[in-house]
Write a structure and sequence with these properties.
By secondary structure, this protein is of the alpha+beta class. It contains 15 helices and six strands.
C-alpha cells in the first residue's frame, strides 16, 4: 500500500467540518464528544454536547453532578451506561490525576467506559501521542483500501487493521491523521456505496480498483433480537404522572419511566397490578402500540391511560408534576410515544 497520510491530511484540511469540539480540542472536550458519538450521529449529538459542556465544563463538575441531573442532561442520547461510566471515570480523574485527564494511553484506557478507540482518540488528538483510533469508520476505510474481505468484527482482523493504521500514521501528526480517517469514513467512504469519485485515496485504493468497494467491509449477519412485551400504565393524578425508577443495574439503569411491566397484561390485570402499589386507578383509554429497539432486544409496548387519586407510593415511585418531568426526572426515549418530556 502506498502512503496515504499526505493526500488524506490535505483533503482533511480542505474539507473537515467545523464542529464545536474541534474549536477547543481539550482532552475533556474530546472525551465527551467521542463518548456521545459512539452511538449517535454528529448532527444529533452537537446540541447535547453544547448543553453538556455548558452545564459541566470540567471533569470536576461531572464528578459531583447529582445522578438524576446527569441523566437529564443525557436524556435523548440513550445508552445511559455511557454517561454513568463517564462519571465514574471523572471521579478517578479527580482523585488520581488532579482533575485533568492523563496524557498517557494506558492510563486513559484504564478508566471506566474508555476503550481502545476512545483512548486512542484522546491520546492522539489532545496530547499528540501516536496511538491509533480505530472505529467502524476506520475499519471500513481500511477494508476497502486493502481490498480485504476478512470479517472486521473479529479480534484478529481488528488487530491487523490497527497495525495497518499505525504503519500509515505520521508520527508528527497522529491527531489530525486519526481525525482525517474518521472524517473520510463519515463523509466519503460511507457505508453502502462510497463516493469514490471524491476520495483523496481513490488512486491507491485496492477495493476501488477491483470494483469491490461497495461490497466491503465484510460483517457477520446480525443476530435476531429478542422481542419483549411491555405493558405501560400512564396514570395521572392531581399530583402528576405516576413514575417508577428502574433498577440500579441493567437496561436503562436508574432512569424513570411510567409504571410498566415487562409482560403482556390485560386491562384488569394492569388495574390489579397498580392496586398492589396502592394506586386505585380507573383505566379508560388504550395506549397506541409502540416499539423501541435496543441493541439485543425489541420492546413491543402497549397499555392504558387512566386517572387515580393522589396517594402515598412505595419506594421507587413518585407523582411527577409537568415541570418535574421537564426538569428533574430523566425518562428514556423508549417511552417517548407516551411521555412528553
Amino acid at each position: 500500500m502506498r502512503p496515504i497520510a499526505a493526500p488524506l491530511l490535505q483533503w482533511f484540511q480542505a474539507n473537515k467540518r467545523l464542529l464545536p469540539f474541534r474549536q477547543e480540542p481539550s482532552a475533556y472536550h474530546i472525551w465527551v464528544s467521542e463518548i456521545m458519538l459512539q452511538q449517535t450521529r454528529v448532527a444529533a449529538a452537537i446540541p447535547y454536547y453544547n448543553r453538556f459542556i455548558a452545564a459541566l465544563p470540567t471533569p470536576a463538575d461531572l464528578a459531583v453532578c447529582e445522578p438524576d441531573a446527569l441523566r437529564k442532561l443525557w436524556q435523548g442520547l440513550g445508552y445511559y451506561n455511557r454517561v454513568n461510566n463517564m462519571q465514574k471515570a471523572a471521579r478517578i480523574v479527580c482523585e488520581q490525576y488532579g482533575g485533568d485527564l492523563p496524557a498517557d494511553y494506558d492510563a486513559l484506557r484504564s478508566l471506566p467506559g474508555i476503550g481502545d478507540y476512545t483512548a486512542g482518540a484522546i491520546a492522539s488528538i489532545a496530547f499528540g501521542i501516536p496511538a491509533p483510533a480505530v472505529d467502524g469508520n476506520v475499519l471500513r476505510v481500511f477494508a476497502r483500501l486493502y481490498n480485504d474481505d476478512a470479517d472486521v468484527m473479529t479480534p484478529a482482523t481488528k488487530r491487523l487493521f490497527t497495525r495497518r493504521v499505525l504503519d500509515q500514521m505520521p508520527k508528527a501528526t497522529p491527531g489530525p491523521y486519526n481525525e482525517a480517517l474518521m472524517e473520510l469514513g463519515a463523509l466519503v467512504c460511507i457505508p453502502g456505496t462510497p463516493h469514490c469519485e471524491a476520495c483523496p485515496l481513490a488512486d491507491r485504493c485496492l477495493g476501488c480498483a477491483a470494483g469491490r468497494a461497495g461490497e466491503l467491509p465484510v460483517k457477520p449477519a446480525p443476530k435476531a433480537k429478542t422481542t419483549v412485551p411491555v405493558t405501560v400504565a400512564l396514570v395521572e393524578s392531581d399530583a402528576g404522572l405516576l413514575l417508577q425508577r428502574r433498577p440500579a443495574k441493567g437496561l436503562l439503569a436508574g432512569l424513570w419511566q411510567p409504571a410498566a411491566w415487562e409482560k403482556a397484561l390485560t386491562k384488569d390485570e394492569l388495574t390489579a397490578a397498580l392496586a398492589k402499589l396502592g394506586v386505585q386507578a380507573t383505566l379508560t383509554e388504550p395506549l397506541p402500540p409502540a416499539k423501541h429497539v435496543f441493541t439485543h432486544r425489541v420492546w413491543q409496548l402497549s397499555g392504558w391511560r387512566g386517572r387515580a387519586e393522589a396517594c402515598a407510593l412505595p419506594d421507587g415511585f413518585v407523582w411527577a408534576a409537568p415541570e418535574q418531568l421537564a426538569e428533574v426526572y430523566p425518562v428514556p426515549n423508549a417511552f417517548g410515544a407516551y411521555v412528553k418530556r
